[in-house]
Structure formats: C-alpha cells, structure tokens
Design goal:
Length: 421
C-alpha cells in the first residue's frame, strides 16, 4: 500500500477530505445480505440474513488521521502520484445488490413519500403541477430520501426512538424536492431532451417554464424547511442550494481547462452531488436527537458516499454504451467537463491535452481522446479514488448499532462500487 500525504479542505462547516490519508485495513467485516431482508419491526430487529464479508485490503487497520477542522487557513499539500486500491469485494456466490432490496426496510416510508410529493408541491398553477408530475413520475430511484429514512431509523435506535418523527418525513420530502429542482435546472443548462426515458420539463413546456418550475420547487422546499423550525437543519440545507450554484459556476468556468486539479474536481463534485447527500444524512441524525459526534459522522458518510457516486458516474461516462447511458459516451468530455478519469489520464498522455484544448476540432479526435483515457490508466485510477471514498464512508458508519438499517447503508456503498465492477 502506497503511503500518501493527508490533505483536507475546509468548506466552513465540515472538512472535505480530498485524497487518501494513508489509512489502510485488512479487517474482515462480517455482514448480512440485504437481499435476504425480511420484515423488520419498528425497533429495527431483523431476521433471515445470509452471511457476507467485505474485505479491506492493506496493512493493519488504523483510524483515519483526518479530523474536522474550521480553520480557513487549511492548506493543500499537493496531488499524490497515485491512489491505493483500498476497497475490494470478496464474496463467493454473491449476486449484485439491487436498490429494490436495499430499500426494502424503508419501503413503507418511501411509499408514503411518493404519495405526499405531488400534494406538497401545490396545485395553484396547473403548468407547475404538470411539470412536477412529469419529473416525479419519471421513475426516479428516490435514493436521497431513502438515505434520509435509513439514517433516521439507524440513529433513532441509539436514543430509543421507536418511530420516525414528522420532521424526519418532511426532511425526506424536502430533500427530494430540492434534488428534483436541481434536475430541472440541470436539464436546461445541459440542453437535455430526455431524462429517465421521458421528455424533460423544458422540452415539454419550454425553457422559461422549466426555469420557473425549478425556482418554484426550490422556493417551496425552502418554505417547508423554514417550518421545521430547527435552525441547525435550516442552515445545513440552505447551504446546499448555494452549493448547487457554486458547483455549476465552477464547472462552467473550467471547461476545456487541462490544468484543472483533482482538488478542484472534488470540490466541484462536492458542491454538485455530495453536499445534498451529506446534508440529508446529517439532518436525519439531528432530528433523531443523537449527539453531535454521531451527526458529524453521518455528514461524513453522506459526503464520502456522494463523492464516490460522482466518481463512479464519471467513470461510467467512458465505460458504458450509449444505450446504457441514454446519451453518447464521453458526453462530459465532449462538452469540456474534465472529470477524474481525464484528469488522471492527462498526467500520462500529453497528446490528450492538445485534443482537449482544440475542443476536438479535428474529425475523430473525440473518439481518440476517449480511447486514450481508457488506455493510459485514467479509468483504473478513478476506480481507486471511488474505492477510497467508499472505504471512508464505511468507516463513518462504525458509530451506529449493527441493525438492518446500518447494513443497508453499508450496502449502498457496495451497490455504488458494483456499478464499475
């Protein structure tokens, strides 16, 4: 295992760990398979699990040396030359994890959420209602509210809370509304015509209506957020909306910039993806009434899971077919959005820089660039980065009791990695 410099970046609330800290482990974690879940009572006891192991490769296990910091002077010590392979799945006769089985323990919670989403958007304007129906009914995975419910129930057990509060449920609805609003705006910015196999809101109703629909949903979610009357959660979730805009600005200002650093990519990924997930999981813990240390661990879990998800998504943009992606492969690269696989590849292949800086003006240069990213190790290094963030997410869950809900949170990490295995 390569030793690595520990780096962190302060966001003003909690620290975003940018690269591996030299932590490694060879501990074997005995776990139960989520796909064998049966009914779980309100206290989270479970029956009928199949044995499973997750093996972390490396030396003796140590605690990560990076801790939360608030100093604005936090320094970045440079990008390491490589990333260790820190997380491996080793299991015999294991089938892929499905989201359906992962979320089985909160299926009733998600059913209630689906029934409430349209009603809380409001029916004052038929066009806005129609836009909401279009995107809420487009077959979303509801991953973010599911994480809210899983963390809510996992942390509720620490304090002996037998049922979720109305604040837990409202938080899940707010999170999905914010996520949906961001998708509407993203589709406008990306000029996307399809999402989840359906026409996008701006394709159906025009750009003006789509922008206003997204704005309305941001405003409506903010109103419900204020009515939770918890200042800590209000600040936490409000920051997410600011982060969305910051992420889009960072991305737009660095298109086709071959000097973009891994640090900057991870900051942008935090703003665009991980910030909402981290705020969701911490907010759920706050409403359970656990101590601040546990709430911060849940924040770190959401942050590391979100970063790992974004890196995996960026890998799939190169490795999946156009049919699987629902868009042409290499779309981000074609638009000048340089993601982890490209950043790593640029370190080894100077020819790639010329193609990118020319904005693929020569015929066939985009396809050649995609081949270079694949052939010079950019995909493999990005996979290592995704695994490193996944390991940190698993470690963040150690403060939780070993219930069906914690196991589902662990399997969410594994589900993400299975997308690139």
């Amino acid at each position: 295992m390569m030793s690595m410099t520990c780096r962190s970046l302060d966001f003003g609330r909690t620290v975003l760990d940018l690269v591996a800290c030299g932590c490694s482990s060879n501990a074997v974690l005995d776990r139960s398979s989520i796909r064998n879940y049966r009914k779980v009572n309100t206290k989270g006891s479970s029956r009928g699990y199949g044995a499973r192991q997750v093996v972390f490769g490396g030396r003796d296990r140590t605690r990560c040396g990076v801790s939360s910091m608030n100093a604005a002077e936090t320094l970045l010590n440079g990008v390491p030359e490589g990333l260790p392979r820190v997380l491996e799945l080793k299991e015999e006769k294991r089938r892929p994890i499905s989201l359906t089985n992962l979320f089985e323990v909160v299926a009733d919670d998600l059913l209630t959420l689906n029934q409430n989403l349209l009603s809380i958007v409001g029916a004052e304007n038929p066009v806005l209602m129609s836009a909401a129906e279009q995107i809420f009914g487009a077959g979303g995975k509801r991953m973010r509210p599911a994480l809210v419910f899983l963390v809510s129930r996992a942390t509720a057990e620490i304090v002996g809370l037998e049922e979720l509060t109305k604040e837990h449920r409202r938080l899940a609805e707010i999170i999905e509304m914010i996520h949906t609003a961001s998708l509407i705006h993203d589709d406008v910015l990306d000029e996307s015509d399809m999402r989840r196999g359906k026409e996008t809101v701006h394709q159906m109703f025009g750009t003006r209506v789509a922008v206003l629909a997204g704005d309305f949903m941001f405003a409506q979610s903010s109103w419900y957020l204020a009515n939770l009357e918890n200042l800590q959660v209000i600040k936490l979730i409000s920051q997410v909306i600011k982060d969305f805009a910051s992420g889009e600005i960072k991305q737009a200002s660095s298109l086709f910039d071959c000097d973009v650093k891994l640090d900057e990519y991870l900051i942008k990924s935090y703003y665009k993806t991980a910030s909402l997930i981290a705020a969701s999981t911490k907010g759920a813990a706050i409403f359970s009434g656990v101590d601040n240390n546990v709430a911060e661990k849940m924040y770190d879990y959401g942050k590391n899971l979100g970063l790992s998800f974004q890196v995996v998504d960026d890998i799939l943009d190169f490795t999946q077919s156009a049919e699987q992606l629902g868009k042409p492969a290499g779309t981000d690269l074609a638009k000048g959005n340089l993601t982890a696989p490209v950043i790593f590849a640029l370190e080894k292949e100077p020819k790639l820089r010329d193609m990118i800086e020319s904005e693929f003006s020569e015929t066939g240069s985009l396809d050649e660039a995609i081949d270079l990213v694949k052939s010079c190790g950019g995909i493999e290094q990005a996979q290592e980065l995704a695994r490193e963030k996944a390991q940190l997410a698993i470690q963040n869950l150690e403060c939780l009791p070993r219930t069906a809900f914690r196991l589902a949170l662990e399997d969410m990490v594994m589900f993400n990695l299975e997308r690139i295995d």
